Amino acid sequence: MKFKSIFWLFNFVVVFALLMFSAASFLLFGRDYAGMYWSNMWVILLLFLVLIAILDFYFIHHWSLFTLLEKEDWPGLLAWLETTIYAKGHLRRSYASLLINAALTVSNLEAIRRLDAQVREKKPSLLPSLGVALGIPALLSRDWKAVEEHFGPLAEDPKTKNRDWARWCRALAQGTEGYEEMAQLLNGNDASVRLLAQDVLHNQSSECSQAIQAQLTSARTLMKAQLAGAHGDKLLAKSRESHLLAVVLSSRVNQAREALC
């Protein structure tokens, strides 16, 4: 259903319900009693109308945003978000997350880099929640020095959302020096991170210590059972829902799963 249709239908239903309730009170209780009833209920009615007005104002204020989302006009959405964030100064987490998604959809990594710089300058408090996604351009460009510089602080910060992704990116950038941390991620909570960690270590197993090799063997046996069939599909779907990076790397994750199972 179209956004405009939903908006008008919502208002119609609210007004219709209010009119029906009012008419029913007069028909059931009579004019005198209904008048007395509404004289005691006017405050609730007023609060109800104010609430509806606030909801309508919210939808009207974001009309352009909802329209662009409905049309799946990603270039238009990206332009709207950039105007809202940079020209109007409305740097919010919701807008920033949408911008990252829109930029990836149209393959505009520079837009994410610009947002990263803006967040660091204007609102660094957003880094724990957005930092991992903001590092996607560095990861996709395989600039390992930039990857380590970006994800290193996030991996150290316990407040970082989806911190295991930051740790995996840092470990990947560190090469052999990151194998120890990569081995720790074999026991992580995110199925995609676990799969990718074992894939890296398995491909470089000859360079790993005996302790890591033993841990890898045990982890791979467990993962084969956990990630097989429909249950594995469910775990990976949950991973993709929890963070954008799992979606970006879904092809590599699927290849790692195929090689494992």
Describe the structure.
- The model has no long low-confidence stretch (mean pLDDT 88).
- The chain has a domain at 1-61.
- The chain is 82% helix and 0% strand.
- The longest helix is centred in the first third of the chain and has 59 residues, at 3-61.
- It has 261 residues and is mostly helical.
- The chain has helices at residues 3-61, 63-71, 74-87, 93-105, 109-122, 127-134, 136-140, 144-156, 163-174, 179-184, 191-203, 210-226, 229-242, 244-248, 250-260.
In brief:
This protein has 261 residues and is mainly alpha-helical. Helices cover 82% and strands 0% of the residues. The chain has a domain at 1-61.
What percent of the residues sit in helical stretches (DSSP H or I)? over 70%
Q: How many H/I helical runs?
A: 15
Structural class by SSE content: mainly alpha
Low-confidence stretches: none
Largest sheet: none
Strand content: under 5%
The run of helices and strands is HHHHHHHHHHHHHHH
* Average pLDDT, all residues: 88
Estimate the global geometry from the Cα principal axes: elongated
Distance between the termini: 41 Å
**Total DSSP E strands:** 0
From the alpha carbons, calculate the radius of gyration and give it in angstroms.
Answer: 26 Å
